[in-house]
Amino acid sequence: MPSERKRNLTWVLTGGGVLLIILVILSFAIGSHVIPFGTLFRAATAYDRTDNDHVILAHLRFPRTVIGILAGCALGVAGAAMQALTRNPLAEPGLLGINSGAAAGVVTGLVFFPALSSFGGILLAFAGAAAAAVLVFTLGGALRTPSNPVRLVLAGAASAAILGAYTSALLLNVPTAFTSFRAWDAGSLQGRPWDAILAPALAIIAGLILALLLGRSLNAAALGQDLSRAVGASPMRITLLTGTCIVLLAGGATAAAGPISFVGLAAPMLARTLVGPDHRWLLPTAMILSADLLLAADILGRLILWPSELQAAIVMALIGAPVFILIVRRRKLVQL
């Protein structure tokens, strides 16, 4: 790794890590009820169940912040992996139909199993996301030799349309399920209990570990199948492992926080601009930047309409997209 790029990596990771710590503290403090910073320290060192601020921190702000970090990391890394797999710098996890699959799973639970717990709903969302990804990989011939990334994207678009029609049909015939679905579909980090975090968290952590181990393989995948074989890599193995990684990451994030777009596109592209296309450094950089982006969007959403709030996914779309377009227009993008 060139010394200049190594310095950039050090600065980016250090700066991103420091920013994440600041955002975590702000996430604990800011909301419809503002908690003083001194109370944060007292709650961490001497928790008091009778103190209302301590209870809010333990049962509302803490799980919300954890979901924001995990979902952000997952979406950023999944986006980088998806871009390498399809050799398309504009790809993001939604191309595999994961958002549509998770939505179909949530609506299925609301309509056919209305008494299902929040944990059960999360599992159905994750199952729907995984099933959609498997369907897309099968229809797109991802495991064929040679495979075609364009076919994979087209299969994702077709599957998303079918699953979207299924979701709409159920919601139109069972209007009572729409209110609950809308709360999840808005992409909010609010109101997620601890029991609903466990399964997605385990999937995301497993996916992050797998992704970081695939850095060299993703470098080969970005070269194309012919060149990747020339350097001794197995395209089919890379596709299978990368697909598993994307399902774990994007499926877990979508199940826990709802469909949140733009993070999986913006963070990898910004990381590629800062540290280059080598996935050994790109993946950890995208992981930090995406967590910063999502947590910052969530905090900003609490401030814009205070004491009410705006969902993180809406903030990302309204504010993040124009800023990102400006960055893209001003700077030359680094190729895969």
Q: Give the N-terminus to C-terminus distance in angstroms.
A: 17 Å
CATH fold assignment: ABC transporter involved in vitamin B12 uptake, BtuC
Spell the H/E element sequence: HHHHHHHHHHHHHH
Total strand segments: 0
Structural class label: mainly alpha
Find the CATH superfamily.
ABC transporter involved in vitamin B12 uptake, BtuC
Poorly predicted runs of 5 or more residues: none
The total domain count is 1
Per CATH, the class reads Mainly Alpha
Shape: globular
Number of helices: 14
Beta-strand residue fraction:
under 5%
Rg (CA only): 20 Å
Average pLDDT score: 83
What's the main sheet like?
none
Task: Based on the coordinates given, report the CATH architecture.
Answer: Orthogonal Bundle
Q: What share of residues is helical?
A: over 70%
Main attributes?
ABC transporter involved in vitamin B12 uptake, BtuC, ABC_transptr_permease_BtuC, 0% strand, mainly alpha, 336 residues, globular, transport
Describe this structure in words.
With 336 residues, the protein is an all-alpha fold. The chain has a single domain, classed as ABC transporter involved in vitamin B12 uptake, BtuC. Helices cover 76% and strands 0% of the residues. The chain has helices at 3-29, 37-45, 52-86, 98-112, 118-139, 149-173, 176-185, 198-213, 215-222, 225-230, 235-257, 263-275, 279-304, 312-330. Helix 12 crosses helix 13. The mean pLDDT is 83.
